[in-house]
Amino acid sequence: MTRRIRTYMQAAEPAGTELVAQIDAQFERLRTRLAGIRSIIVVASGKGGVGKSFVAATLAAGLADRGLKVGALDADVNGPSLARMLGAVRTRLRVDADGVHPANTRAGCALMSSDFLLDTPDAPLRWRGPDGAGFVWQSALETGMLREFLSDVCWGKLDALVIDTPPGTDKIARILPLLPGISAVLLVTTPSAVANAAVARSCTQLRDAGVQNLGVVHNMAGYFCPECRTISPLFAPATEHADDTPFGPTWATLPFDPRAAAAIDAGLKLPVDSPVTAAISRIIASLELPGTAPEQYP
Amino acid sequence: MKFLCVACDAVMNFAERQLPGDGTMAAVFTCPACQHEIAMLTNPMETQLVASLGVKVGGRTVEPPPFELIRGNIAEGSDVFADQVARVVWSADALDRLQRVPAFVRGMVKRIYSDYAKGHGIATITTEVMDRARTDLGLEGM
Whole-prediction pTM value? Predict the structure, then answer.
């Protein structure tokens, strides 16, 4: 005869392990820290190599240029690049009772990145643990790292926090639950059927998660020649971008400007006369953040 | 996670957590009806899995310090925090305890204590420092 043993759900009495209470406390700490941030802007794609970090860095710098108080979070913990792009000096992180202080960048915004946690520029992110089994908890640790980047960093009061996400729809799903409110998501794609297929999956995931304000950024949409100032196709004409996509409205089209690419690689500002600079301004206008009306910043 | 005393049909209460320093953990639970006690023993992998969530079995008495999970689990980054000292030494009793850690996790455990000491400006690692590190870092079984 089988004994009747109560299930976990039937055994409602607390056991005193406090595990759920600690998870709740983590989210409360997150909400408290992020309460001072007016707008959270997520830059995503689902596809690697389309220029998410480029868009995130130039957007953060552009917002800071307009006098906004801006933070940037490099959520690509295994492939961080914002520190270099925003011109952050490799420095020790200062910790006090309030938390970990983000790094200042040449672009004028505060930055937190796993880059600052690595001993050398060529060191990969590695986790401790019993040998050979790191894959078991790697995902939990990476999510925990993002949680602490959000909840334990002294972001202060920000007009905007720009978050650069890594490739992969799973990575987007990992960070969404940590964000109490998202003002907008920029989906970055290139004139490529492969990239658009990946973006479509991300778009579905974001819409299923209730994200409404999606804008599409077409990156590498043609080659801009700085000498003759013309734009020629970079990909086959059939794959060049459409004005609107099934994912959402097009907010900006960025041609490839070698001067802009060189500037961002060196952590410098974009050339004023680059079409990329104008495209970033169009993104900022589409975001409709307080204090960024075009007439205020010609 | 709960333990049910089958004889009493009562959820057992968490009573005590012990971290022997070899990567494992023992958590003691008591039946509120018959007072029978059991101990849940976790191996280093199971212990690490719980620690990866940033929680401690039995709860906390103080707020976790900033970047507790990161500082306790990242393999790189021993010198990135500004409040660190350059080098630590081990006391004889601390080294003796370290030798009891299984060889396959000993290097990892040693690094954790060294980084903790550096991060807290502690020049000498003693058994007391090891005890405090385990509690502070939420490294349940290290």
Answer: 0.83
